[in-house]
Amino acid sequence: MPDYLKLLIYSLASSALWLAEAADENDRHLFQRSLQLTGVCDPIPPGTNPRVCRTVIGTGICLDANGENFNACFKYGGLHGFTKTDCRDVAEASGKAVGWQYGAVGLIPRVCVLFFDEADVDGRVTNLCPSDFSQFGLSGRLGTGFPKQTADGIFECYSCE
Questions:
Q1: Helices (H), the chain
Q2: Domain-by-domain residue ranges, the chain?
Q3: Is the alpha carbon torsion for 27, 131, 121, 92 positive or negative?
């Protein structure tokens, strides 16, 4: 993907976390959690998820206890039906995500953002991003631990604690 296209997607995703309307609430109920799905067809045996990422911290950008931003990566769902449930399932299956957010972004219908602890990033957040996700901003953000507070924004911040 050309750098200018990545920059455009990043810019849209960044501004959307502040300005866009929240995604359809019906996304939460597309799959029963007991099915343990990470994607549309990837079953996980019950009880093997390394993390449970369902705690709502608040509405706005996820921040750590000191008010620091986390390193992050994102995926836009486009027209492929990537839902809020799919986003949560990817965060839980990653084993290293400390939090996540999901929402509609202007012309890009659905964006999933995964947050990672600076201690796990080791200089390059891309090492922790799932293969179909892109780095969100620059590595080197100082957020550590799990999300504990939020900054301005309209999407719910979820913790994997």
A1: 3-19, 84-94, 118-121
A2: 3-159
A3: positive
Cα–Cα distance, 22 to 102 (Å, whole number):
8
CA distance 85 to 29: 8
What's the distance, CA 70 to chain centroid? 11
Burial 99-131 (b: 16+ CB within 10 A, else e): bbbbbbbeebbbbbbbbbbbeebeeebeebbee
Give dist(CA 114, CA 95) in Å, integer: 11
Q: What is the pLDDT along the chain (161 residues), one digit of tens a residue?
A: 555 444 445 444 444 443 333 344 444 444 444 444 444 445 555 555 568 999 999 999 999 999 999 999 998 876 667 889 999 999 999 989 999 999 876 666 788 999 999 988 877 888 899 988 988 766 567 899 999 999 988 899 999 98
Distances (CA, A) of 88 to 4, 28, 83, 154, 158: 28, 10, 9, 17, 9
CA pseudo-torsion sign 44, 36, 147, 27: positive
Nearest to 147, CA basis, from 85, 60, 79, 78? 60
